[in-house]
Amino acid sequence: MIKCLVVDDEHLAREAVKAYIEKIPELAFVGECENALQAMAFLREENVDLIFLDIEMPEIDGISFLKNVKNNPGVIFTTAYRNYAVEAFDLDVIDYLLKPISFDRFVMAISKFYERKNSNVSHNETKKANRNFINIKADRKIYKIDIAKIDYIESLKDYVKIICSDESIITHDSLSNLENTLTEFGFIRTHNSFLVAIDKIKSFNSESVFLEDKELPISRTYKKYVLSQL
Question: Is the pTM of this model over 0.85?
Answer without folding.
Answer: no
